[in-house]
Design a protein that fits this description.
With 258 residues, this protein is α/β, with parallel strands linked by helices. The protein has six helices and eleven strands.
Length: 258
């Protein structure tokens, strides 16, 4: 596809669908927030959703960006984020996944994603997914050392079932960092922490880790935070500080083992 002629629904240039904060950050940690934004370009007419649905958690991960930004500042870590809603394209899914452009999310049908042609799907892939992946790949390549950490949030109730877990520490085939974080979390009573919950690699949620960390042998982890804990500034600050300490402790443990 010729990226010099962007689709009429996309008001920004391809490189502006991804944002990088602290590109010169000195921490080895590279933070990623794939579901940072609920922005749906005006030309897509909210994908046929009413305003409440288009602004709800199905469109983004509430609180995840706020936590990621605080971690970025506390650690002096580079942060890469997606600036368009995951309902338009979920950058934590490969193009071949049917969850990359969903026509249903929980109880919501997504009319604007229903019946898309291959060309329409390719258009979103080329203008959203590929620039995001390129930015992330370049950030990994240009750093001497990288610890890849992705930040997400999840709902306390899913399909009418309450979730007791408060923090999920997720990993794919490389569990080194997750193991160390779980060991550190076991020493504090602050939150109910579980491994690969409320999702795991079998749910297809570890694409970013598998794409950018596993092939290079990089330490990596995906963090899921229950979004009711992120409902206000004090909650966001508390969990961001806890995560900073948890991650630092885990990395120090791994550094001592090497």
């Amino acid at each position: 596809m010729n990226l010099s002629t962007k689709p009429n629904w996309l008001p920004t240039l391809p490189e502006n669908v991804v944002d990088t904060q602290r590109p010169q950050g000195q921490s080895p940690v590279l933070l990623v927030c794939e579901h940072a934004s609920r922005f749906i370009p005006e030309g897509l007419s909210n994908l046929g959703l009413d305003e409440a649905a288009a602004q709800s958690h199905i469109a983004w991960d509430p609180g995840a960006m706020a936590v990621a930004e605080r971690l970025s500042g506390a650690l002096d870590a580079t942060l890469i984020t997606q600036k368009i809603s995951r309902l338009v394209y979920d950058c934590n899914r490969p193009p071949e996944s049917d969850q990359a452009i969903r026509d249903q999310s929980e109880v919501y049908n997504i009319p604007g994603n229903t019946g898309l042609s291959a060309a329409q799907r390719d258009e979103r892939t080329d203008y959203i997914y590929r620039p995001f992946q390129k930015e992330l790949a370049e950030a990994v390549k240009n750093r001497l050392q990288t610890v890849l950490v992705t930040i997400h949030s999840f709902t306390p109730v899913y399909n009418e079932k309450p979730r007791a877990v408060e923090v999920g520490i997720l990993h794919d085939s490389d569990s080194r960092l997750a193991d160390a974080m779980l060991n550190a979390a076991a020493k504090t009573p602050d939150f109910r922490v579980e491994r690969n919950a409320p999702y795991g690699p079998e749910d297809g949620v570890t694409h970013t880790l598998a794409e950018h960390a596993l092939p290079r042998g990089l330490l990596n982890v995906m963090i899921e935070l229950r979004n009711d804990l992120l409902a206000n500034e004090s909650g966001i600050e508390a969990i961001a500080t806890w995560l900073e300490n948890l991650l630092t402790s885990a990395l120090n443990e791994l550094d001592g083992d090497s």
